[in-house]
């Protein structure tokens, strides 16, 4: 079993290492692609978030099928949003106005069909990557959801290895990071799907992972791992060096992370339906939810978060079969 050798950083464990992020290294995307620069973002001062206000709801019939158990989200730097509609085993492409344009589906086990899509990501070339846990493959589509190829992860040293596919992220030089959930680690693959090394095993810097889920890639090529059963978010650089963690008593079962334009991580607890905001240094700021102003139901088993280009927060409210597009209210608003 391969592990990354001695180039790992030595850092303080048990809390978020503040000094590592004072230079703004936490900037990440709305989904799993790169977040674009926002004009004059440095001139704007962040305010303390106090509530979520519903601006738009996406539910009901979309492209001929009723939205059912929406789950994973990913976005690109042009404003497109991609959603896994788990109940219909499909991916839906929304434009920057959040209008549905096209879907990619086809229940089945043949090439180019989705059996059990669980996570997705958009790389720097706008290729959409989908982890299909049912078939054990990575499916690649164009930004318009046109099927391109599929890759089966393999470890040449242990050919019998079975991967439990979960979150995915693709770094700029082509390595594919794949959460191997029940094996409690990250498999780093080359472009052909061969394992190069593993991250997060026993003895690895930063401690062992337990059922890692969503992965998020930052615009500075830092990778955020939802280490669900350890109740934390783990941060690595794109060379797999451990940078730190976000760990706090408010985190119960972190299922998703997204970062706003002020480099503040928002972490979603799926069981409680609460969203926890931390500042750019990893210090706890506030908790919102499970009530969203303007809705008639509390969040139910929410599974993912994403930010739009204009700073609105998209919540995949799985148990209520809907997407919520929310404006974040702050303590400086009347």
What spatial form do the alpha-carbon principal axes imply?
Answer: globular
CATH class: Mainly Beta
Terminal CA distance: 57 Å
* CATH architecture annotation: 6 Propeller
> Radius of gyration from the CA trace?
19 Å
Major β-sheet annotation: 4 strands, antiparallel
* Lateral arrangement of strands in the main beta sheet: 1-26-25-24
- CATH topology annotation: Neuraminidase
Q: β content, as a range? A: 35-45%
What is the fourth-level CATH superfamily? TolB, C-terminal domain
Helix content bin: under 10%
H/E topology pattern: EEEEEEEEEEEEEEEEEEEEEEEEEE
Mean pLDDT: 85
Outline the secondary-structure elements.
Elements lengths: L48 E10 L2 E2 L2 E2 L3 E6 L5 E5 L4 E5 L5 E5 L12 E6 L5 E5 L4 E5 L5 E5 L13 E6 L5 E5 L4 E5 L5 E5 L12 E6 L4 E6 L4 E6 L4 E5 L7 E6 L5 E5 L4 E5 L5 E5 L15 E4 L5 E5 L4 E9 L4
Antiparallel strand pairs: 1-26, 2-3, 4-5, 5-6, 6-7, 8-9, 9-10, 10-11, 12-13, 13-14, 14-15, 16-17, 17-18, 18-19, 20-21, 21-22, 22-23, 24-25, 25-26
Write a compact overview of the structure shown.
This protein has no helices and 26 strands. The chain is mainly beta and 334 residues long.
């Amino acid at each position: 079993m391969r592990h990354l050798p001695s180039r790992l950083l030595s850092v303080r464990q048990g809390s978020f290492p503040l000094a590592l992020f004072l230079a703004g290294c936490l900037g990440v995307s709305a989904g799993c692609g790169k977040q674009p620069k926002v004009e004059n973002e440095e001139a704007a001062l962040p305010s303390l978030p106090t509530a979520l206000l519903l601006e738009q709801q996406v539910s009901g019939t979309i492209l001929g099928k009723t939205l059912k158990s929406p789950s994973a989200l990913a976005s690109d730097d042009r404003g497109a949003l991609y959603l896994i509609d788990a109940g219909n085993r499909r991916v839906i492409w929304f434009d920057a106005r959040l209008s549905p344009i096209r879907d990619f589906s086809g229940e089945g086990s043949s090439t180019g069909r989705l059996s059990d899509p669980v996570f997705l990501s958009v790389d720097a070339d706008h290729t959409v990557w989908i982890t299909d846990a049912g078939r054990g493959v990575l499916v690649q589509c164009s930004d318009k959801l046109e099927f391109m190829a599929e890759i089966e992860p393999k470890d040449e040293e242990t050919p019998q290895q079975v991967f439990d596919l979960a979150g995915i992220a693709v770094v700029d030089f082509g390595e594919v990071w794949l959460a191997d959930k029940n094996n409690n680690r990250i498999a780093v693959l080359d472009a052909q799907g061969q394992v190069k090394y593993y991250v997060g095993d026993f003895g690895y810097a930063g401690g062992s992972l337990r059922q890692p889920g969503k992965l998020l890639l930052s615009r500075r090529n830092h990778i955020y791992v939802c280490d669900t059963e350890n109740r934390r978010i783990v941060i690595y650089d794109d060379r797999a060096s451990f940078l730190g963690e976000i760990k706090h008593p408010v985190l119960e079962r972190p299922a998703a992370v997204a970062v706003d334009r002020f480099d503040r991580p928002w972490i979603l607890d799926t069981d409680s339906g609460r969203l926890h905001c931390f500042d750019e240094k990893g210090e706890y700021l506030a908790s919102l939810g499970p009530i969203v102003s303007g809705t008639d139901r509390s969040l139910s088993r929410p599974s993912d978060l994403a930010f739009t280009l204009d700073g609105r927060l998209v919540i995949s409210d799985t148990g209520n079969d809907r997407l919520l597009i929310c404006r974040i209210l702050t303590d400086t608003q009347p």
